[in-house]
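Batch manifest line 496
LIGAND: glutamine
JOB: complex structure
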Amino acid sequence: MSDPTHLSLAEARDALKSKRLSAVELTQAHIDAIEKSRALNCFITETPERALAQALESDLRIARGESRPLEGLPLGIKDLYCSKGVRTTAASRILDDFTPTYESTVSANLLRDGAATLGKLNLDEFAMGSSNETSAFGPVVSPWRRAGDPDAKIVPGGSSGGSSAAVAAHLCLGATATDTGGSIRQPAAFTGTVGVKPTYGRCSRWGIVAFASSLDQAGPITRTVRDAAIMLGSMAGHDPKDTTSVDAPVPDYEAAVGASVKGRRIGVPKEYRIDGMSAEIAALWDVGAAWLKDAGAEIVEISLPHTRYALPTYYIIAPAEASSNLARYDGVRYGRREQGRDVTDMYEKTRATGFGSEVRRRIMIGTYVLSAGYYDAYYVRAQKVRSLIKRDFDEAFASGVDAVLTPATPSTAFAQGEKGAADPVEMYLNDVFTVTVNMAGLPGVAVPGGLAANGLPLGLQLIGRPFDEETLFSLAAAIEQAVPKIERPRPWWRES
Ligand code: GLN
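JOB STATUS: finished
ARTIFACT:
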């Protein structure tokens, strides 16, 4: 078979089932691709031996007719998911020698279903960022290049930048990611891939390094909508170890791919037409609505009046929860310790050297908004606004809207160093269309919408009712069908 890294996850599954390809061959092809693509810096830790051992077991199972749903399919795991016996860093110095003795529930579900795991993917430190430039292990480079600008190193988005770049560069069939304010959907949009942030509670957070617990959700990044549906089917499910995980059956997401979208009402929120929105993004949004209309859906204008408060309130709630979650990195329980004169000095030195500047900024903001005297003015107020943001969506859905269509990001990907160096808010603005979804706990999907004039991908976002990922899969598949074929980047990054 010609290069099996070009198969989609669904095609690879079928090729393994019909024995046109072995799991070991498929895994080895991805390991070879990873070795030749280190210039992209997608992986923090590669685990080729582990992947090959898993693939070998898969081939034995396939021969015995005992295939599991993801049998022999090689995946990448964001290095925020704890992997039993494999170093797990959260892209932070403070965890650079941490090897968990347990496996996160979501990655354990993938292993239970037969996946092979190629290694741990790079990310922004503790998932804080939108460009993968805050990683203590260096930035990830997107396989995409800007037209006429071959020297600019384009960012793959963040925080799941290793996941999005590895999937876009065909280094794995799919990857796990996490989304607190956009970290699945924004990197997917930047790399022309599909990213799914499920409803809060759909996937277990157990064993995933916590950032902001009331916002964090696990989800997949893949090259096709069908592949995302297949992966989410394995990742999702109730877990008694996470009290926010929902005890509800996991639907057959793959069956929703290709289902008719006739008569579906799609809301287009007028508040997302933000000041200074580029003509290109506005045009993409209109075209996306037209594609859904052609597929039989009905487009209606809706209002989500509290949208403009989402980003500022996110940047109170997320740092508040982060400052509390990250208190555990004290040099005693996990990872790195710096010696000090006494215990307080040891804490301070450990945290000052272990955390990067963006993480320190979030801890300071979070501690401030939770402190006596400011708690009511900032944190409590932000929680109230969060309820209003959720109510906006509740009302839209109550009026009969089945899903909401928006752009995924306010721009295409930018080059390393181009944004946020002087003003972090410039970086935070990347998530203006995605944070509302986390604040309201809703499912959201980013799906490729085409290429911009600069040659880089643009993405559309679909937002759904709680636990109605199926409608999103059917709508995203309709968009995928309608988008003119996207020319993928030539593998300039591969060493021969
Ligand atoms: N970019 C946002 C942040 O920096 C969202 C990150 C995420 O979803 N993990 O907080």
